[in-house]
Write a structure and sequence with these properties.
Layout lengths: L1 E6 L5 E5 L4 H10 L6 E5 L5 H13 L2 E6 L2 E5 L7 E2 L1 H4 L9 H8 L1 E5 L12 H9 L3 E5 L2 E5 L7 E3 L5 H12 L4 E5 L5 H12 L3 E3 L5 E5 L7 E4 L4 H13 L3 E5 L7 H10 L2 E4 L3 E5 L10 E2 L11 H8 L5 E5 L9 H7 L3 E5 L2 E5 L8 E3 L3 H13 L3 E5 L2 H6 L3 H7 L3 E6 L3
Parallel strand pairs: 2-15, 3-14, 6-7, 10-11, 18-19, 22-23
Antiparallel strand pairs: 1-23, 1-24, 3-5, 4-5, 7-9, 8-9, 11-13, 12-13, 15-17, 16-17, 19-21, 20-21
Helix pairs in contact: 1-2, 1-7, 4-6, 5-6, 6-7, 8-10, 8-12, 10-12
The protein binds uridine-diphosphate-N-acetylglucosamine (UD1).
Length: 421
């Protein structure tokens, strides 16, 4: 297992280019199952989750591969095995996204139930409820969701909770259903909208994009085509917070400030200077003492849960105290004991963490527990005095494209090691 070694204390400075969004490309790869022709996606990050998804598609009988540095092409004309097995779903919950497309196009899907994960229970009841409302026959057999439908029918579905992949699964199923589907209380995350635009490009009829009511008029088939994935707002925010925590100055390119306005406002309130450009964001954290800022996670456009650990790492070294309220996942504070090992002063009461800023963190050996928690530990290690070793960085590779290469180019002392005991 690989590790990251970081010698902290270096202010980040320079420019970094952001990759395509993980949470947009994964549903788009699932969406290729709806399409008979060739689909090519551009601005695709080389992530472990993307490779896993390509494997899921290939094992089903599709042809799916990187055809260029950041370009993936898929042909799913024939699917011989409409199954997402447990071994793949357990490493990447997003594989549940194949359920809606397989059912809509082939009338059958068998997808492993994801089970619990490190950050919480993460049920899929809303995915199932919506597909049933569209006429699917669904049974849970030996840990698998087995879904059948000779033809899905449009329905009015009110989702009980705002779910990103739930919205995406139902939107994809509805694209090839007979009649019109209305999805109420839909997620409005930019990645949901990007998927809707991609589907429309291939012949779908989705309106209400960017709102919480999506209307999908079913069409008989979709055609192939090309689409460029939007920039990753979480990678963008992670780099900005790394620069802020190390009191540095960076320009983040190939990104869009409208994707993370709430994070930028919090950073400004903390004391960072920020400039928003056409496709870049500039941050300068060198001049003012920075304040700890409270955040509460909630669905878009509120503060993203996927930025919570990184913001907490920043707060540990800011002045004053702040609270972080996690409202999306019930077990998403696993980075707290690791940050405490580096000298952070944090107490947790249920879903609320209180962070009292300290004047310094010191490097330590810490363990990554999930993707975004790992990013928080990297930020803390970059800002800490001395050497940190971060174990289990396979979590990071799921969602960050060459993270240590990008950070090194910004002046960080960081290297990837084979495990030393
Ligand atoms: C997606 C993102 C993940 C992000 C999360 C919240 C992808 C691939 N992953 O995950 O990075 O952290 O959104 O922004 O896009 N829930 C139910 N029933 C359901 C579905 C969800 O109760 O059927 C609950 C979940 O337990 C959770 C909340 O709804 O408490 C939001 O989860 P959801 O939006 O579904 O997260 P994911 O789509 O899995």
């Amino acid at each position: 297992m690989q590790q990251l070694k970081i010698i902290g204390g270096q202010a980040l400075s320079g420019e970094v280019a952001i990759s395509g969004a993980k949470n947009a490309v994964l549903p788009m790869l699932a969406a290729t199952l709806l399409i008979e022709g060739d689909t090519c996606l551009y601005n695709v990050a080389r992530l472990r989750d993307v490779h896993t998804f390509l494997q899921v598609l290939n094992e089903m009988g599709a042809r799916a591969e990187f055809s260029d540095e950041n370009q993936v092409c898929v042909n799913a004309k024939t699917i011989t095995n409409p199954v997402a097995p447990y071994d793949l779903v357990k490493t990447m919950r997003a594989s549940v996204l194949v359920l809606g497309p397989l059912l809509a196009r082939f009338g059958y899907a068998k997808v492993s139930l994801p089970g619990g994960c490190a950050i919480g229970a993460r049920p899929v009841d809303q995915h199932i409820k919506g597909l049933k409302a569209m006429g699917a026959d669904i049974a849970i057999v030996e840990g698998y969701i087995e879904a059948k439908a000779s033809k899905l029918k449009g329905a009015h579905i009110v989702m009980d909770t705002v779910t990103v992949t739930g919205t995406e699964n139902l939107m994809m199923a509805a694209v090839l259903a007979e009649g019109t589907t209305i999805l109420d209380n839909a997620a409005r995350e930019p990645e949901v909208s990007d998927l809707a635009h991609m589907l429309n490009q291939m012949g779908a009829k989705i309106s209400g994009i960017d709102t919480s009511t999506l209307t999908i008029e079913g069409v008989p088939s979709l055609h192939g085509g090309e689409y460029s994935v939007l920039p990753d707002r979480i990678e963008t925010g992670t780099h900005l917070l790394a620069a802020a925590a190390t009191r540095g100055e960076i320009t983040v390119r190939n990104t869009r400030s409208d994707l993370l306005e709430v994070v930028l406002e919090k950073l400004e309130r903390a004391g960072c200077a920020i400039k928003r450009g056409e496709n870049f964001i500039y941050l300068d954290a060198r001049h003012k003492p920075l304040q700890a800022i409270s955040v509460r996670t909630a669905p878009f456009p509120a503060f993203p849960t996927d930025m919570q650990a990184q913001f907490m790492a920043f707060n540990t070294l800011a002045q004053g105290s702040a609270t972080i309220v996690e409202t999306i996942f019930e077990n998403r504070f696993m980075h707290v004991p690791e940050l405490a090992r580096m000298g952070a002063d944090i107490s947790v009461d249920g879903q609320i963490a209180t962070i009292r800023g300290v004047s310094k963190l010191s490097g330590a050996r810490v363990m990554a527990t999930d993707l975004r928690a790992s990013a928080g530990l990297v930020i803390a290690a970059l800002a800490a005095e001395g050497e940190s070793i971060i174990d289990r960085i396979y979590h990071l590779d799921r969602g960050y494209d060459a993270m240590e290469v990008k950070l090194k180019a910004l002046g960080a002392q960081i290297e990837r090691l084979q495990e030393i005991s």
